[in-house]
Amino acid sequence: MRTIELVEGIQSSVLGLGCAPVLGSIDSKTCGRALSLAFEHGITHYDLARSYGFGDAEKLVGRVFKNNRDKIVLTSKFGIKADWKASLLRPMKPIVRILRGSEKKHDAHLPPKQGTGKSASDLLFRRVEINSMEMYKSLEESLKALKTDYLDYFMVHEPLKSITNIDEISEMAMRLKASGKIRAFGLAYMQSQKHLHESYFDRFDILQFNSPPGVTAYRKLAEERWGEPNIIFSPLRGGTWDMSPAEKIEKLIRDFPESVILCSMFSESHLKENVKLVG
After folding, report:
1. For residue 47, what are the contacts with CB-CB under 8 A and spacing of at least 6?
2. Which end of the chain is least crowded, N or C, by CB within 10 Å?
3. pLDDT in tens, 144-170
4. CA distance 225 to 227
5. What is the SS3 string spanning 4-19?
6. Which residues is 155 bridged to in the sheet?
């Protein structure tokens, strides 16, 4: 698979695996098989966060890649984490997956539901303060779970308000890079949050954002970020209904040629189809 250097010295596959469903909506066996298959097909970029899998995703990914750490690119994030209620509900995960699967099949032919507030799963997470202490603490937790001594990318995870202590955060990032614990520092944000953060975009090595074709201001964003290094998540969520999933991914690759496109691919057929698209 074609690779791209988003930050000097870090080579990523153009197609990355978004690991938000790991040990959440997708069970351990399926996740392990999908991660291994992705690696076999040349996918080297894996996107995680402390909150994924209700706090368990990093451990599984770390086990799968324990003998191939030097061949992959790992991203994790801080700012959102699973709270104590998530661990109590761990035994219920298989039942929840069955119920959610049935609901998805029933609604497969319908447009996406409009948001009505917090979902049940939102109640299992909490936001932590964006400060240097929480940043360092979260990084150490991620490194331990992933069984690695460094992250390729470490990001702030979709903060809902402007980061007023950006100097403090930037200084900690420089210290972590100097120590070898992280190789690059980034910001992951929703496009709806862009106005909160754009004044300090230049303080980050990489930006990660959602941009499905067809959303408001897509063309303007593509013009602004064409030729810039980006990581794009949730490429199929929202946007136009006039394009197939494959057409959306192909358009993103054309419009953001210096970017990694993250897809959550946990079926063999889905993964192979997307790999063909990027070559």
Report:
1. 16, 17, 18, 19, 20, 75, 208, 231, 233, 262
2. C
3. 999 999 999 999 999 999 999 999 999
4. 6
5. EEEECCEEEECEEEEC
6. 77, 186
Q: Which residues pair with 5 in a beta bridge?
A: 11
The amino acid that residue 19 corresponds to is C
Both tokens of residue 2? Answer: 């074609």
- The vertex-66 CA angle with 139 and 64, nearest 5°, equals 100
SS3 207: strand
Torsions phi, psi for 222 (to 5 deg)? -60, -40
Overall pTM surpassing 0.85 (yes/no): yes
Cβ neighbours for 4, distance < 8 A, ≥ 6 positions apart: 11, 12, 13, 14, 229, 258, 259, 260
Cross-strand bridge partners of residue 188: 157, 208
Buried b (16+ CB within 10 A) or exposed e, 135-164: beebbebbbebbebebbbbbbbbbbeeebe
86-136 confidence digits (pLDDT tens) = 665 665 555 544 444 544 443 333 344 444 445 445 567 889 999 999 999
Task: Give me the count of residues in the chain.
Answer: 279
Q: Where are the beta strands (DSSP E) in the chain?
A: 3-7, 10-13, 15-18, 45-47, 73-78, 80-82, 125-127, 151-157, 182-189, 206-210, 230-233, 259-263
